Fold each of these.
Amino acid sequence: MINFLGRCIQNLYLSTRYVLTGQTRFQSVLAQAAAISYDSLIISLVIVFVSAAVIAIQVSKQFLMTGAEAYVGGSIAIVMIREIAPGFVALAIGARAGTAISAEIANMKVTSQVDAIKTLKVDPVGYYFAPRLIASAITVPMVVLIAEMVGIMGGLVVSHATIGLHPARYINSVWLWLSTRDIYISLLKALIFGVLISLVCATQGYETKGGAKDVGVSTTKAAVLSTVYMLVADFIINIIFYL
């Protein structure tokens, strides 16, 4: 794990240097943005909406029993923005796009396409990693922001359907409880999670050796490692901003 983390940091440095030298093509970043975030948008929104609905079902009746139904909206909004939306969106993107990144680069590595890039005097790490890192850093926070709004609206619909909570009381509670600081932190989380997913999955794919069987093994490892690193990063961010 420590050696792999070191390789990730090294690849991040090489990718950053590649970007700063102006060698990254906008078309490559745009293509990766579509593959990483746009193609994962629907599944991310569905997951967040269902999660918000489940939370609303769990808390609405309990709050109603204690006469605190006016706080349902704020509670759901805080949970959505601080944890559920950034975490679940990152997991969805990691499961869908992260594994694809790992499999694609691993296949290039075992079929000697990476060696062909080296013969052209092009840095393969920068060439393969930089567009994916930039695309993730820009677009994952966008998906998270949309997911947060969808999650809050999902909580509104379910709370109104289950306990008859008026939408105005729900929205008022959201405005009272929510702060712009929470939104900024959630977007920071999304940026870090996006970069981690692309970096870890690309590094795992780049380290692949062997044949087609090893590509599958590497893809599985990439999914596990990206999840672990994301959860550790989430823990550290929460300690920094909320402890």
Amino acid sequence: MRERIGSSKFGQWVSEHSFLRFVVTRFLLIIPTLFILVSVVFFIMRLTGDPITATMGGKLPQTQIDKLIHDAGYDRPIFVQYFEYLGQLFSGDLGKSVKLNMPVTELILTYGTATVELAVLALIVAFAVGIPLGKLAAKYRDKWQDVTVRLFSIFCYAMPVFFLGLLLKLIFTVQLGLLPSSGRVSSNLQSQLSNVDFPTGFYVIDSLQTGDPEVIGDVFAHAILPAVALGLLTAATFIRLIRTNLISTLSTDYIFAARTRGVSEKRILNKHAFKPALIPIITVMGMQIALMLAGAVLTETTFEWKGLGYQLSELLKARDFMAVQGIVIFIAIVVSVANFIVDVLAAYIDPRVRYGK
């Protein structure tokens, strides 16, 4: 009896500490990932030239441009600039944007909310479209419903997000005149969002605070097309994952036992088979967040959605080193933390993950 108790306690201790060890290991992996990314972006940006010449070239005499370059330190050896930049990062200083003439931290706080809002809305679209269609395809496996859904998922996955955005604008803005083609809110309603008691920068939340149906409707109308364009890309992945895992789950012994007990197909699909099929979606959620943030650059540019993606495309044209590096670091941190959370959830739900099985 004592041996069994001791063995049980030891097994519990090993299980708890293996999970803790897994969490700590995954968290520590964020540090070298960010370091490598910062280094790669730094050297690539330096190879394209300096931002002062790109921004001020042709507007100022060369002597003044040379002075600005010297004052900014862009004429010093590249490794000197590199180690100075790392020192700034460790002190929490992301530098200053040459093009926008504002600290990069302020730039991220100003425009980051727009990108996060778009990503959340797109994720809602992905779930709203991907889950029902994935269940439908699995329920009617190899029938015309399944074939139609699979063709739709292939279309969404293969279609470039900017082209899909242009197609949606052509249909719903130009042809039907139902939805606005660009921006986050109409210019005549912009002031009402900034006059709320606690402006968050998330226009959906701020519009609800106004209580004005016109403002709320206008904000949601502007958000529909970009959210759909970006969300359908992720919805395609959800459709395939849910379909594949539901079909696999529906062929297991416990589903067969449920059928023999007379449980309805609807209950089997929605209760017994659907929950296990969601586990793979959790494991790929971090990757989908990364894809959404990458797709946000093209989506925001297509719809002139003034977020970090839109600003990043403009800053890249101007070769604004500090701003581009700061935005990339911010996005990398968001993606790394999201992947870390997803890995921990997956390991908690399925203990085999922490052992690499």
Amino acid sequence: MERVHYEEVEARNALNRVANMSFAWSLNPYRGCVHGCHYCFARRYHSLYDLDPSKDFTSVIIVKTNLPEVLRRDLSRPSWRNQTVAVGTATDPYQPIEGKYRITRRCLEAFRDYYTPISLVTKGTMVVRDADVLLDLTRMSGCAVCFSITTLDQDLWRKLEPGTPPPKKRLEAMEKLVLSGVFAGVLLAPVVPGITDTQDNLEEVTRAASEHGARFLGTNVLYLKEGTKEHFMGFLQQAYPDLVETYQRLYPASYAPKGLRDRLRLKVQGLKDIYDIGDRDTAGFQPTARYGQMSMVL
């Protein structure tokens, strides 16, 4: 098993301004992720710090130890306008080390205390630990917890997301949050062409999301930018060599062809209609348009 090195650093800023997305700000308690999803878009950011987006992404985890304190400083500024903050856009805020540092929880408490709405993406089941704070956020300012689930197939899950909790455990965690009053749902994202885009796979995830009470379901297709693309193509060469040429054709740039993306979105929308997953209860998160776009950053 790969040895993980955790490097503690002090952050100078907590909130990151985001361009060309449906949210203006993001926050990431960690950099790198032991979940090791082969398609993870955040791998590319490791290369910006002279780290290997393949090996180092899962073995060198940066821990921003002072982030909650810096966040409170940022939120207390007179210029802060309580805009929605996306939590976990470049790392999973509930990867296992959160059990030790509790950085994510302390940041959520800061958002609650400063009446700032959030949306949060995770594959981690530890999020249930913070149901009390998430419920406060849901009631006071707005909160959406998005569970990324690409497949329920055990073989596909182990290949694509080797370090993550089992998808069924994520669904159970989501259901617990929903039953506690938290606005939570599923991101069927990314849809991986040729691997998780079958009708059976998409329907199985959608049906399970409905059965576990998902308040919403968003989706998007895999995109591959520099850093992530090199790693993912290497993964394909080992696990799905017959798909390499297909991906070279589909991804000359970062995004799959628009026609493919549109067809898959329509297919998932049809399944949402069948299994009655719409905006079942938007009262818990007023900026509801945002959660559908969160899949863009997975």
